[in-house]
Amino acid sequence: MSFYSAYDSITVDVADGVATIEFHRPDKYNALNTEVMLDLQRAFAELQLDRDIDAVVITGEGEDAFSAGADIEQYAGPAEEHDPRQKDRQELFYDIYRAPLDLHAPVIAKIDGYCAGGGLILAMYCDMRVAAEGSQFGVPTCNIGQIPTGGSNYRAVQLVGEAKAKELVLTAGFIDDEEAHRIGLVNHVVPSEDLDEKVAGIVDAIQSTGRSAVKNSKKAINQAADAPDIDAAREYEADLWWEQFATDERRDLVDEFNEE
After folding, report:
1. Residue 45 has pLDDT above 90, yes or no
2. What are the CA-CA distances from residue 33 to residues 18, 25, 75, 99 (Å)?
């Protein structure tokens, strides 16, 4: 096992092509303060350069929370007492939140406990979300007089639709694991004791396919989600298709298939 090191609030462990990022603030429900966000920025920059990474799993220490969101203490007091570069800070955080989506490899959020606010924003930018039974999901920003940020409004509408996104945000309420699965916010819900096995099974499935094909497919799906129309999506998809067709991986896997 190799280790990415020198982080203050997270660990990044890499073994057999799989990176596991874990938050280590269980006493704060793994809240995402500035220190955590900057650690994430560095971690994803390093992972982006490591093309041997096939998949990434993000999780939080303990069984209470994946992440309960921002550290609210950072937002106390009048606006004039805060750093005037707060808007720039939010722009930086947007880039960090969407780093899982932009990463070359699939990213899975492994959720056990609360997944709220900024924690939910980060999870929504992952490619898949797998939750333990009993997990809770919410966007309680209106309860503290703020609105969701980090591009989360757009992302939430993509994942669950406008009406459900508005209900989650405007009521500042929480939904349980069953409702999160029903509306498509999470891919799977399993008993807590089966969470590790379920995520490992997804990772194994990813690694048992064409690894370059997986990464190019992620690019194509991401572009399709944001494309203005099907023609634009198809044009980008066609370029990626030919790029993948020209790989040794495609040739070898087709030969293996035809030999079976």
Report:
1. yes
2. 26, 10, 10, 17
